[in-house]
Amino acid sequence: MKTIAQIAAELQGYDPQALSADQVLAFLERLVQPVTATEEVGIFDALGRVLAHDVVSPLSVPPHDNSAMDGYAFAGTQLLAGQPLTLRVVGTALAGKACTGTVGAGECLKIMTGAIMPPGLDTVVPQEFTTTTADGRITIAANVLQLGDNRRFKGEDLMEGSVALAQGELLTPAALGLVASLGLKTITVYRRLRVAYFSTGDEILSLGEPPREGAVYDSNRYTMFGLLTRLGAEMIDLGVVRDEPALLEAVFRDAAQRADAVITSGGVSVGEADHTRTMMKQLGDVAFWRIAMRPGRPMAVGRIARSGLQAKNASIADAASNSPHQKDDEKDRPGAILFGLPGNPVAVMVTFLAFVRPALLRMMGSTRPAPPLLRAVSTEAIRKKPGRTEYQRGTVTTAHDGTLQVRTTGNQGSGVLSSMVQANGLIVLHHGQGNVAPGDAVDVMVFDGVI
User: Fold this and answer.
1) Which is the CATH superfamily of the domain at 4-37+191-363?
2) pTM for the full model?
3) Which one of 107, 170, 184, 316 is at 20 to 30 Å from 425 when CA atoms are compared?
4) Checking DSSP bridges between strand 123-126 and strand 71-74, what pairing results, if any?
5) Is the confidence at residue 311, as pLDDT, over 50?
6) Are the C-beta atoms of 35 and 322 separated by less than 8 Å?
7) Cβ contacts of residue 237 below 8 Å, gap of 6+?
8) Mean pLDDT computed over 117-128
9) What is the CATH topology of the domain spanning 374-446?
């Protein structure tokens, strides 16, 4: 396990007071490690989980050559260029039933989609491409078909013994269907990532508290709840913690013992009245960054150590509660990864999407690459200084010619939470990028399925 200083030494040009977004991602990739404990779950419980082992196909899919269409199956060598073909129908092949008998020259079988292709037959003509003669034969017009058309081969999707899904795959609805197509009821996945989160600050009100001058209601815990729910994490909500050393210490220690990752909002900026930074330093190996980005410049990252006897007792309790199929990895976890985020609501969401979410996915064991940024044409001028990455809230639409276009939501203040509701993506203006003119193409990180 590398320390913060060791990781920093590996990054060229590392300056905690002026980190680029790319340097942050590179740092976090070195800091976090995947969980190792696994469990066996049913398919209905596997959505959003991460595969712990390759899924090797126990059978071929499809298991036989079969028809891709409703139509007529025959030997395709009878097709001659420029000539129609007339065939006598000698039987019917239905899906799910083996077809007996033989089909000779000048003959065909009526066949349904998915039905097994009988030996010697390799081509299917769709029913709508044929005409029926008075004596019940079918005629195929010249040059509408080629040998082998509309036949699915055995193992065309998957061959027996091949890897159907690779370790580290994030299980999507399509992946669940693929697992089911192999006849598998259960699948081995990594255990859920446990993430503790809380908000800090004497000015933060919990829901239900009466308003008071200078105070604001906490929104960050609720957006964090939504973001972590979408991610499929096991959440530990530790509420709002006042800026008092004893309270902060107790909550940090509790979080480090119970969770793989701890996410805080507020208290990472330089301030005389803030004890959060002090407690982070006292309890862990933590770096305090100023990132060359907007919004969300301050951020703390590191590890909060687990305390000896309490950590041991927590491991025993966790092991006792594990399912018999789950391997316990608590004893190997030295502490919780800390993500100290800014306090402003939009900055919390942006830093989570840009940095924390990719890191948590890695901790979950996912090897899936980050989704590509979309390219869209800006419909307006956007002011931007080179030397920082900006994440501006934007709305992407489709123009009449089919191209994607994007506009900002207006006020880009880091406290304007309503703009995140109006937006369907973040316009990503990269570190070296300058002003954007109307008609320029920009990158967009889309929200769909994430927030």
Assistant:
1) MoaB/Mog-like domain (3.40.980.10)
2) 0.87
3) 170
4) antiparallel
5) no
6) no
7) 196, 197, 198, 221, 225
8) 95
9) Beta-clip (2.40.340)
